[in-house]
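Journal club side-thread
Mid-discussion, someone asked how the predicted structure for our own chain would compare to the paper's figures. Pasting it here so we can look after the session.
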Amino acid sequence: MAETNVNSNVVGFECGGRLLITRDGDTDTSVVLNVVEGSLRMVEGGEEAIIDRDRGTNPDAPRRGADRESSVSFDVKYTASAATGELEELLSLPSGPGRDHQTYTVEVQIPPFRGAAAGVRFLRLSRCYVSPGSLGLSAGAEFDTLSVSMMSMDTRIERGDVA
């Protein structure tokens, strides 16, 4: 049996990565600054697995079930500058009855090493939305944080190379 090494080229968002948010329908992209180290999390939804059990036995493989939403969450250092206010404004919920939620594309760019211009990979979720209760402010000893949690109607995270 042949063996293949996987996960051997370690990269890090903290070494010059970028978090980009684009409001669907806009041409401008916002670069999110002051992301709290270690807080960025992107989770692929995929599909539920349906396991048919018959008197304690399991089938060979689970059946495909319903689609699950993907998610992205992160914390930013809350500042008195306009930058954080702009993030809150960018992600604000629609007002008035009958308004649809605004959707966004969230892209995480991760370089192979600090300062790299080539080989930058991206992870992208489209059709993201902020639901009520998904923005929260926390007081901290060193700095306050704004926590952001977004759901995506996409079941898979798009992956590729930044052009």
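Post-session note: Residues 4 and 87 are 43 Å apart (CA to CA).
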